[in-house]
From TrEMBL:
Protein localization: Cell membrane; Membrane
Family: Belongs to the 4-toluene sulfonate uptake permease (TSUP) (TC 2.A.102) family.
Biological source species: bacterium (Candidatus Blackallbacteria) CG17_big_fil_post_rev_8_21_14_2_50_48_46
Protein name: Probable membrane transporter protein
Membrane disposition: Multi-pass membrane protein
TM region(s), chain numbering: 7-38, 44-65, 72-93, 113-131, 159-185, 191-207, 219-239, 251-269
Family annotation (InterPro entries): TM_pro_TauE-like, TSUP/Inactive_protease-like
PANTHER family per record: MEMBRANE TRANSPORTER PROTEIN MJ0441-RELATED, MEMBRANE TRANSPORTER PROTEIN YJNA-RELATED
Principal subcellular localization: membrane
One of the record's GO cellular component terms: plasma membrane
Superkingdom field: Bacteria
Length: 273
């Protein structure tokens, strides 16, 4: 085993720990870890990420279920359209994207470049969501919203998040949580806990869209990597009893911002050669 792979498994524990500690955001690191440390092709990395994130979220959610913070009703309302979106994205949209999209000057814009570019943009947006203070987020949730509008908005957002999840392989917790706060009326702790339910369901359902095709999946690697992320998630959940996740989230947000810029620059540089 090479040193970079050992570092990759350490990063897997870190990713799971962040997922268990702050209830989301950690999953955004999975694709970069797979692509840069394990040399996994980007499209395959997004498929692996869905399985890893989905499975890890289940274990990360366990402590929140025990604390009765998971709102299953809202989670299911969000998850049903999200499942449709992510499955359709993996089964039909991703395979339909041509390997070579277009030329930008002398640069050949490929499918892999487009996916990594979109992923980098998602990382930057996710970082802003995490850097933003808890108070600012909760302030946006004030105001009465009718029950019907809640269901419509939560369902619509679920479909959009599902499609994006299928494209980039990220859990999308930074998109899920604001909707649960603003339209479903959940407080931040409930929103974080419920987002793990949504992420686990839609990610694993989306992974099913990759089964049965020509793509060869390395189940031994998937299982081994997932063990490390699950250990991290359990450690993160335990640490969350003693450390305020809200205080750590902005710092992690800055880290994700730097990573997002790195991925974006790396994608641009690699495309120029």
């Amino acid at each position: 085993m090479e040193l970079i792979q050992i570092f990759g498994y350490v990063a897997a524990v870190f990713m799971g720990g962040v997922l268990g500690l702050i209830g989301g955001g950690g999953s955004i690191l999975t694709v970069p870890i797979l692509v840069y440390l394990f040399k996994t092709p980007p499209v395959l990395a997004t498929a692996y990420s869905l399985f890893i994130v989905g499975l890890t979220s289940i274990f990360g959610m366990a402590g929140y279920i025990k604390a009765r913070l998971v709102n299953f009703k809202v989670g299911i309302i969000f998850s049903i359209p999200a499942m449709i979106g992510v499955f359709s994205s993996r089964k039909f949209i991703v395979p339909a994207i041509p390997k070579h999209l277009f030329h930008l000057g002398s640069v050949d814009i490929t499918k892999d470049m487009a996916i990594m570019g979109l992923f980098a943009i998602m990382m930057v947006l996710a970082s802003f969501s995490m850097i933003k203070s808890k108070k600012e987020k909760e302030d946006t949730g004030h105001g009465e919203v009718s029950e019907l509008k809640k269901i419509v908005m939560v369902s619509a957002e679920g479909l959009i998040v599902g499609i994006l999840t299928g494209l980039v392989g990220a859990g999308g917790g930074f998109l899920v949580i604001p909707v649960l706060v603003i339209f479903a009326g959940l407080d931040m702790k409930e929103a974080v806990a419920t987002s793990l339910l949504v992420i686990s369901i839609k990610s694993l359902f989306g992974f099913m869209g990759d089964l049965g095709g020509d793509r060869q999946l390395d189940w031994m690697f998937l299982g081994g990597f997932s063990v490390f992320t699950i250990v991290g998630a359990l450690l993160g959940t335990w640490v969350s009893k003693f450390v305020s996740s809200e205080k750590l989230k902005p710092a992690f947000g800055w880290f994700v911002l730097v990573m997002g810029i790195f991925v974006l620059l790396n994608t641009g540089i690699s495309g120029g050669h």
